[in-house]
């Protein structure tokens, strides 16, 4: 006669029951992030990479302008009250050596660090948000963050939309020049990363 561990079975059933709830929570999180990014369309009208001295925490340049990373930063603030400026700064202060040294900095700079794509990639990887890079639209989910290289040299990032473009692929919400827009551009440039960043506020 086979004996069953009643407690193990109950724990297993509880875990199975939680899967749909986790999936629903993930979809709600993605929907909120996408909606916050989409609200930037028509508001952020220019691409301006100039160095700016920012307030801290929750610092920002005027919303009429920005760079690609500002789409993410603003979306996480607006949707969840999560301040990537403060989080990246704290992580860099604790593990500065883990971050790229390509700008010649010797210490964190809270005005610009979170607005640089390679730093956000490092931060997201350190938070366990990195996912396998998918080569087709089927491997991506709305709310995923993509990173790419424009012309094989300029790092870029944005958020995968819940709408599809004319190609049938997921659209993206990003600022690649001319302000924040939603367009069919997921595979327009060489992809370098895929992330699903879930953080506590």
Tell me what you see in this structure.
- By secondary structure, the protein is of the alpha+beta class.
- The protein is built from four helices and eight strands, in the order H-E-E-H-H-H-E-E-E-E-E-E.
- The chain has helices at residues 6-38, 68-80, 84-94, 117-126; strands at residues 46-47, 65-66, 130-131, 145-150, 154-164, 170-174, 181-183, 190-195.
- It has a six-stranded antiparallel β-sheet. A two-stranded parallel ribbon has the order 1-2.
- A hairpin with a 5-residue loop joins strand 5 and strand 6.
- The radius of gyration is 19 Å and the shape is globular.
- The termini are far apart.
What is shown here, in short?
The chain is α+β, with helices and mostly antiparallel strands.
Give keywords.
single chain, 201 residues, alpha+beta, six-stranded antiparallel sheet, two-stranded parallel ribbon, 8 strands, disordered N terminus
């Amino acid at each position: 006669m086979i004996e069953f561990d009643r407690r193990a079975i109950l724990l297993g059933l509880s875990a199975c029951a939680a899967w749909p709830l986790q999936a629903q929570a993930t979809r709600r999180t993605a929907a909120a992030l996408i909606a916050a990014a989409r609200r930037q369309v028509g508001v952020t009208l220019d691409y301006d990479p100039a160095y700016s001295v920012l307030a801290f925490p929750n610092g920002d340049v005027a919303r009429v302008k920005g760079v690609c990373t500002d789409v993410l930063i603003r979306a996480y603030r607006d949707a969840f009250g999560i301040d990537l400026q403060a989080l990246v700064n704290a992580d860099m202060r604790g593990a500065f050596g883990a971050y790229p040294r390509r700008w010649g900095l010797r210490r964190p700079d809270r005005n610009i660090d979170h607005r640089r794509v390679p730093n956000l990639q490092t931060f997201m990887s350190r938070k366990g948000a990195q996912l396998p890079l998918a080569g087709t639209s089927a491997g991506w989910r709305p709310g995923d963050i993509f990173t790419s290289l424009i012309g094989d040299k300029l790092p870029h990032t944005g958020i995968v939309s819940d709408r599809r473009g004319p190609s049938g692929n997921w659209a993206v919400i990003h600022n690649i020049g001319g302000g924040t827009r939603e367009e069919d551009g997921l595979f327009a440039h060489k992809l370098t990363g895929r992330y699903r960043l879930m953080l506590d506020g």
